[in-house]
Amino acid sequence: MQTDALRAESVRKVYRGRNSPDIEALSGVSLRISKGERIALLGRNGAGKTTFLRISSTLLAPTSGSVSIFGRDAIADPEAVRPYLAVVPQEGKPFMHLTPREQAYTYLRARGFSAETAKARAEHALEQMGLTEVADRLSITLSGGQRQRTMVATVISTEAPLLFLDEPTIGMDPFARRGVWDSFRELTRKGSTILLTTHYLDEAEALSQRLYIIDEGRLLAEGTADDLKRSVGGTLRVSVVSGDGITAQLATFGPLVRDGDTVHVITGPQRIQEILELAAHSKLTATVGPVTLEEAFLRVVGRSINDES
Ligand SMILES: Nc1ncnc2c1ncn2[C@@H]1O[C@H](COP(=O)(O)OP(=O)(O)O)[C@@H](O)[C@H]1O
Ligand SMILES: [Mg+2]
């Protein structure tokens, strides 16, 4: 039997409030990740992504439920699984008085790699993250994006069997984000397994082979980005701004997905013209585009990924 890289069963987490109500951050999360997969956990702020990542990487104990890593019980025996893991925590910072080169090298040495391997791997990861030119500057002198890249470089240089990355590209420019994505693809090609969290729809789509949508501590959907888009019920969307007044008519063309005061009609190419005419007749603006992960997210969660309410 093939052993899963990560298996979580009914993971629940309640943060006990001192002078505030308890918060149930996870309400029974179960998932399985096979060896070599690249998986994204996609959700809004406060959905429970960080809590899940911390529990599954042995940094936080769940209230109940189980986690196993390569077939070993990660809650009963975290020490046994830690050598297989590496984690980029949310808002982690490099040591400010080390350079990126020193940080990556030192971390690898601490994990038991030889000087030669540590040097070669650190160089490769720094190059992949576009840090070669700043590799000998103290981290305190680096920009936020460069510091984040240093964290990612340090952790990916381990080539650990199971990598956890919490919002790895936050604060990075588009070019740096592509470098991170490429490095993750290379790592899974070499056999590592990756679980990352993100609230960027494009990142989840470009990077993951499967993704889970999480909201309010529950997994609401699972599949490839294409599966999730198909589940919306059409290939095209017509977005009608302030379309609330004509929802009954719009609904005759296909499923509706709401985003604030915009109504998206999910449909096929043959109905587009009629919908545009209906909108024009009501003096409303309408645009046409392919169905994206955004509509899938809206349909599953009922709110936009950037909705913080
Ligand atoms: N240490 C903590 N103590 C109390 N509540 C917390 C703590 N960490 C997170 N929470 C709450 O748990 C919920 C999930 O948070 P989190 O896992 O950080 O979500 P995400 O990473 O998706 O933004 C939120 O309501 C958050 O406020
Ligand atoms: Mg988080």
Describe this structure in words.
The protein is α/β, with parallel strands linked by helices. It has helices spanning 49-56, 78-81, 100-110, 115-128, 144-156, 174-189, 201-207, 225-230, 247-250, 272-281, 293-301; strands spanning 6-15, 23-33, 38-42, 64-69, 72-73, 85-88, 162-166, 193-198, 210-215, 218-223, 236-241, 256-259, 262-267, 286-290. It folds into two domains: 6-228, P-loop containing nucleotide triphosphate hydrolases (Rossmann fold, 3-Layer(aba) Sandwich), CATH 3.40.50.300; 233-290, 2-Layer Sandwich (Alpha-Beta Plaits), CATH 3.30.70. Helices cover 33% and strands 27% of the residues. The radius of gyration is 22 Å and the shape is globular. It binds adenosine-5'-diphosphate (ADP) and magnesium ion. Residues 15, 23, 25, 43, 45-51 line the site of adenosine-5'-diphosphate.
